[in-house]
Amino acid sequence: MRVFEEPAVSEHNLGLLPAPAAPEWEPLEPGRARPVAAGTTPTNAPVVTDGSHRLVLRPGRTAVLAVPLGWDQSLQAQLDARLPAGAPDPGGINVEVVTPLLGTSAVPLAEGSADRPADWRTPGVRGGRLRTGAQSQVVAYAHRDSYDSTLTSASLAGVHHVLVRWAAGDAAGAQLRGVRVAATLTLRTTGEPGGGVPAYTPSTLPAPEAGSRLVDGTLPEPAPQGPDARPPAAADDDSVVPLGGRGLAVAALATGLAVVGLLWLRRRRG
Predict the structure, then answer these.
(1) Most-buried pick from 60, 172, 224, 250 (CB within 10 A)?
(2) 91-107 tens-digit pLDDT
(3) Which 8-state DSSP code applies to residue 204?
(4) How many helices (H) and strands (E) in the chain?
(5) DSSP 3-state assignment of 150?
(6) For residue 169, how many other CB atoms are within 10 A of its CB?
(7) pLDDT exceeds cutoff 60 at 143
(8) Between 140 and 109, where is the model more confident?
């Protein structure tokens, strides 16, 4: 089992961290797409940067890309494709931004929403152009006091994941096997780290940052202390990094193949 604990934040700084407003969608124009071999889960998703990326969509499958996201930043993701006539369940193609805490971070842009981009469209059974996407909330420590799960999920800097799902619906297996659709996923990070960056107290624990990747155990271990301290255990064993203090912990299988739990750790204020 693997555990990550966040260092404590200065008590004085806690009251100064702002709760940002929800970001607004800004139009995205796809550029020249770079081919990418998407992962199938957050544990094997390749880390990419802003820009357009070429994916292959298949019914009943999920394509996953990883994107570093720091404090005070949010992510836009837009999917463009042309579906063939008879493509199964064209309305079942969705884009989702998943945070390091494995929750969805989303500004509501659903069908019928006043904030839904005017150029998003879903083709019918005759096929045609598809455009859809997702907008994450701003990553902010202050979101931890919210009762909205799409906000509390967006409360830790680190590698986020963009999931493109195509639900198979009721289509038969034979109908799905030959369907492969080229698509372009355009990503844009907005915002810069500023007043929302937590002031962590001095600690041997690694502070979360844009490149922190919790789901596969690649975060650095706390530094050993004392003359008899032993180096951190290897990533493929069953040991657990000791817990303590106030912060977030994420527990995952040592193999990095699945996440088995999330744990809030909070110490009472002295």
Answers:
(1) 250
(2) 889 999 999 988 999 98
(3) S
(4) 3, 11
(5) helix
(6) 13
(7) yes
(8) 140
Distance CA 2, CA 119 (A): 43
What is the Cα–Cα distance from 77 to 65, expressed in whole angstroms?
11
The owner of tokens 């008590």 is 11
Strands 34-35 and 51-57: parallel
For the chain, first and last CA: distance in Å? 31
CA distance 9 to 171: 51
Question: Tell me, what amino acid is at 215?
Answer: V
Three-state SS letters, 88-131: CCHHHEEEEEECCCCCECCCCCCCCCCCCCCCCECCCCCCEEEE
Copy the structure tokens of residue 157: 């800097």
Q: How crowded is the C-beta side of 237, counted as CA atoms within 13 Å?
A: 6
| φ, ψ dihedrals at 202, nearest 5° | -55, 130
For 75, residues 6+ apart whose C-beta sits below 8 A from its C-beta are 67, 69, 97, 135, 136, 160, 162, 187, 188, 189, 190
Fold adopted by 19-190: Jelly Rolls (2.60.120)
- 69 by DSSP, 3-state: which? strand
> pLDDT by residue (tens digit) across 187-217?
999 999 888 888 888 888 888 899 988 876 5
